[in-house]
Design a protein that fits this description.
Blueprint: H1 19-22, H2 28-35, H3 40-45, H4 59-71, H5 77-84, H6 88-93, H7 105-115, H8 117-133, E1 141-150, E2 159-160, H9 161-174, E3 191-192, E4 200-204, E5 207-219, E6 225-232, H10 238-252, E7 258-260, H11 268-276, E8 280-282, E9 302-304, E10 309-311, E11 317-324, E12 329-334, H12 336-340, H13 345-348, E13 357-361, H14 364-372, H15 376-401, H16 411-435, H17 437-468
Parallel strand pairs: 1-7, 7-8
Antiparallel strand pairs: 1-5, 2-3, 4-5, 5-6, 9-10, 10-11, 11-12, 12-13
Helix pairs in contact: 4-16, 5-7, 8-16, 10-11, 11-14, 16-17
């Protein structure tokens, strides 16, 4: 017999309702609550609260709510607060009962502003320490990459920075407060918006972005994020490399042997830093020396270090003539009359006035070291791994945790967002390892076996080449 829908009438009392029994044993939040410590935050923020007045919401609960904000990819704190009472799993995770009053969204935002970045950095470090203890971090080979984050502001209201500084100074005078000390007129032609004055413009491949950059360090072993450095979007990548590596060393206590990155980090400044730290770079760079117009390539010219000149294939010298400051290169030019008498003149010289010209990058010695410190076959392998280790980390953050759009305004708040998302990504891998140790061990065995097979295939191919010769 077909049943009919029950006529639901609200009960005055509910007996035997238990959130604990209603949460499945394999629910992800159950694993997080069991293995991740949120109570540390109480000692971290106790100085931010007074001794008198009403009791605040437990800081551990606020941290759990902020974790839910990014773990569930909720668009705002207001939306999270409105949905908290409707989700039984969220109530249980935040230690609320079904009829308990839940916090207003302003409680979350006020606590976040009061705590500052250090609390969230500590949360990131705690989870990273658990990953290290679980054997998920090797720390010897690291991948460094950056991604842009769109600011929570529109590009259509940009104004010159000097104009914004003037408005802020005028506002300070009207309020009869002390003159600001942090406002400076550096880069007066930089365009900013009053909505988020820390965000900057960045242009890549014709696409304009107003926002920030997140420079991440990802460990080669299991893709654990070991450091995150937030900068305005207009800061070049190589400017953040040193800080990112230092953060990795501070967070893990391990100095890396190799650093892998893309061309955005391939500058003399980066190579000098890594050379001084005794870290081998696998970082390509733009080739300033290869000529696009000459049949006889730059590679056929030999640099004479003792005399600071180049020797052409016919034995003639190219002497130092000038320094190209915009390209940070030294120009070496051959005598025009000597070149005209050479049989390779038409295929070698493209200038109508001077002889053959070659540019040598300032700091070419360190660039040559960076190009040759790691064998080519190993460089290709590391660059392939960078594609799915580093870029895969950003893709996961964007697809699952709302990474590409800043929820808040200001560099400090965006830094908090980046720390929380990185912590959650590390936490997911940590829980996968803890809850499924056998699966993780099998995966590692497969990786090791694959590397062994590839290494043997390469050795066999190398032996075959030697035999054929």
């Amino acid at each position: 017999m077909m049943g009919k829908a029950n006529k639901l009438e609200p009960k005055l009392f509910y007996h035997g309702v238990s959130l604990e029994r209603r949460i499945p044993k394999d629910h992800p939040l159950r694993k997080i609550k069991q293995h991740i410590d949120f109570t540390f935050v109480r000692s971290q923020v106790e100085d931010s609260y007074g001794k008198n007045g009403n009791k605040s919401i437990d800081p551990a609960i606020i941290l759990k709510m902020l974790l839910l904000l990014f773990y569930e990819n909720i668009k705002s704190e207001r939306h999270l607060a409105s949905q908290l009472s409707l989700r039984l799993d969220w109530l249980w995770f935040c230690d609320y009962d079904i009829d308990d009053p839940t916090p207003n969204h302003s409680v979350i935002s006020k606590a976040r502003s009061r705590w500052g970045v250090d609390v969230f950095a500590k949360f990131f470090e705690n989870i990273l320490s658990q990953c290290i203890e679980a054997g998920l971090v090797d720390g010897k080979t690291i991948h460094i990459d950056s991604s842009t984050i769109n600011a929570n502001a529109g590009i259509d209201k940009l104004k010159p920075k000097l104009e914004l500084i003037g408005k802020q100074l005028y506002r300070q005078l009207e309020e009869e407060t002390d003159m600001p000390t942090e406002l400076t007129a550096d880069q007066p032609y930089t365009k900013v918006t009053e909505v988020d004055s820390d965000a900057r413009l960045f242009v890549k491949n014709g696409k304009i972005t107003l926002g920030y950059k997140d420079n991440r360090v990802i460990d080669d072993g299991h893709g654990i994020i070991t450091a995150t450095v937030t900068t305005p979007a207009n800061i070049r990548d190589e400017k953040a490399l040193a800080k990112a590596v230092e953060e990795h060393i501070k967070n893990t206590g391990i100095k890396p042997d190799k650093a892998v990155a893309d061309k955005g980090y391939g500058y003399v400044e980066s190579y000098n830093y890594l050379h001084n730290k005794n870290i081998l770079p696998c970082i390509p760079h733009r080739d300033y020396d290869v000529s696009k117009y000459n049949k006889i390539s730059r590679a056929e010219f030999i640099y004479n270090r003792d005399n600071d000149c180049y020797i052409c294939p016919m034995g003639h010298k190219l002497r130092k003539t000038q320094v190209d400051r915009p390209q940070q290169a030294v120009c070496y030019t051959a005598d025009r009359k000597t070149c005209e008498q050479c049989e390779n003149f038409t295929g070698c010289v493209s200038s109508a006035k001077s002889g053959r010209n070659i540019k040598r990058k300032i700091g070419a010695d360190i660039i040559e070291w960076a190009d040759n410190c790691i064998p080519q076959y190993q460089r290709r392998k590391l660059m392939r791994r960078r594609m799915y280790k580093a870029e895969g980390s950003f893709a996961d953050a964007a697809n699952n945790h709302g990474y590409k759009r800043a929820r808040w305004r200001g560099k400090t708040k965006v830094q908090i967002q980046n720390l929380m998302i990185a912590s959650i990504q590390n936490m997911r891998k940590l829980l996968r390892c803890i809850c499924n140790p056998r699966t993780s061990a099998i995966a590692q065995e497969i990786i090791n076996a694959t590397s062994f097979i590839r290494r043997n295939l390469f050795i066999n191919w190398l032996i075959g080449c030697q035999v054929s010769k």
